[in-house]
Amino acid sequence: MDSFTSFLCLCSIIFQSVSLIDAQASLCRTTCGDIPINYPFGIDDGCGSPYYRHMLVCSDLGNLYLRTPSGRYPVHSISYSDPHILVTDPLMWNCRDGDHFRPTRPFSLDTSTPFTLSSQNDYLFFNCSEDYVIVEPKPIFCERFPDRCDSSCDSASYLCRHLPECADALSASSCCSYYPKATESLRLMLRYCASYTSVYWKTVGSTTNSPYSQVPEYGIRVDFDVPVTTH
C-alpha cells in the first residue's frame, strides 16, 4: 500500500470516528418539555454521568420524572447553579384536600446515589395518634424534656399555623411538623398519622446580597452533587 492510499485510509477512519461522536452527541437530548437537561443528568442511554443514569425519565408527552425506590415523581424544576431538583408527590396532602386525607406513601431515595433530601424541606403530618406520636409544642416541650425533643412532632409549627396558599384549609384536623431522619422514621409516622405533605423553603432574591428571604412552597427539594468525572 503506497503512502497516498494509507493517507486516504487514515482520513476515512478519522472521518468515521468524528461522525460517530457527533451522532452519539446528537442522541443526548438537552431538554424535556421546558426543563433543561445538563450534566450530570441524561435522559437517553449513554448520556450524562454514570452515577445518575436512568434516574430521570422523559415521557412521550414531554413530562420529566424522577425515579426512586418509592415511585416516579413529577419534576417541577432543576437548578444547576444551586444543585437541586424540585419534585412533587401527587399522593401527598394538598390544599384541595382540606380535612379529607387520601392514602399516601413515604417518599424515599436510593441511599447509594448522590441524591440527598434537602434540609430546606419541612414535613407536616396530620391527625397523628397521640398514643404513638409525641405531639407537643416546641420549644416548651424541648425545654422540659430535652432528651425527647428530636422525636417530638411540633404542634406549634409556624407552617401548621400558616399553611402555604391555604391558611384555613384545616378546620377539624390536627397538624404537627417533624423532620424524619430516615425513610423508616417516615414509614412509622405514616402508620400513625392520616397523611403528610412536604414544604420546601424557596429563596427569593440573591443569597449574596442582603436582604433576602425565603418563602414556603409545596414540594420536595432533592439536592445532588456534580461528580468530578470526564464527560
TrEMBL record:
Residues 28-89 form the Wall-associated receptor kinase galacturonan-binding domain. It is a single-pass membrane protein. GO terms for molecular function: polysaccharide binding. The keyword Signal applies. Residues 1-23 form the signal peptide. Keywords: Membrane, Signal, Transmembrane, Transmembrane helix. The keyword Transmembrane applies. InterPro entries: WAK_GUB. It is found in: Membrane. PANTHER family: F12F1.23 PROTEIN, WALL-ASSOCIATED RECEPTOR KINASE CARBOXY-TERMINAL PROTEIN-RELATED. This is Wall-associated receptor kinase galacturonan-binding domain-containing protein. It comes from Gossypium raimondii. The lineage of its organism: Eukaryota, Viridiplantae, Streptophyta, Embryophyta, Tracheophyta.
